[in-house]
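Reviewer 2 asked us to include a model.

Predict the structure of this chain.
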Amino acid sequence: MHLIDVTNSYRDLVHSQLNTTNVNYVKVYSLGNTSVIYTESDKAIGIVLENHNRRVRKDETEFVIERLVKQKNPSYVLTFDKSQHVIEIHIDK
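Predicted model (structure tokens):
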């Protein structure tokens, strides 16, 4: 698996996140057919994985946490929709 930085292709999303929320850092990645949006504020880290074609797999979630979160063994909360096409990871700092 490879995370590819595609932030430049999502300028409007990044601009909107920075102007309408309290986040101060936004990155967008591609993980094959799964899109990954990483946001960071002074208090928390938020990661959203989205795949329109299938459920987001557990190994994709673990891979993204391992690659993007600098803390060792972070404590996080997973939230997902009923179909598991969208998964949100919330990590308090």
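The longest strand covers residues 25-31. The mean pLDDT is 94. We have added this to the supplementary material.
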